[in-house]
């Protein structure tokens, strides 16, 4: 039984760019309105937010900007890898950078993929669909 107000499936997004937040949120909403996207503007706050979550309300997916303040997306993934309770949650790093070094670093840490941020609305829909494909139903 789900309580009122808690019926949406949860995606956590670590992103400090409000435009990217809104574009991804709108794309996910258009694809499947049963998803709730919670945006956290920096890596340290992202980790602290996760630490407050109980096992019953864990996110189904984590999307992290490579270059967010305080802790980068990669640093967040390193911290989460040290905590077993987050191991089964798919993690995706996304960035404006196409750096093969950033991608290799991210994949080495076990993220599902490193995605270059789209630069047009149609591509946001395609990217959001791809991200959602990593969620276990």
From TrEMBL:
The keyword Hydrolase does not apply. PROSITE patterns: RESPONSE_REGULATORY (PS50110). Keywords: Phosphoprotein. The keyword Phosphoprotein applies. GO terms for biological process: phosphorelay signal transduction system. Residues 10-132 form the Response regulatory domain. SMART domains: REC. It comes from the Bacteria. The modification 4-aspartylphosphate is found at residue 65. This is Response regulator receiver protein. It comes from Chitinophaga pinensis (strain ATCC 43595 / DSM 2588 / LMG 13176 / NBRC 15968 / NCIMB 11800 / UQM 2034).
